[in-house]
Specification:
Length: about 90
Amino acid sequence: MKGFLSRGWYGIESGKCSKITIDQNYQGNVYVYRNYNQCEHEWGSGKYSFCINAVDKFTISESDKVSCSGSNQKRVSMSKFSVSPGTNIWNFD
């Protein structure tokens, strides 16, 4: 893996739908992480570990390998979902 690239964080309210738009012809993976009331939760296996900026969008080269020593950085486990062109719907209850 080359690292995790983020366009920012999306707020998703419990019991409501949220639409997240990615490039129209993107085919690959989307990684999901949840932080709710300071508690972390992964959907699925949660076996992918990345260094993230918990506050803002970021580009961290080799984020699956580097230590998290920067401002607002921390290591979290994420779950991977495959994405194909068109509409992809997941329920994250």
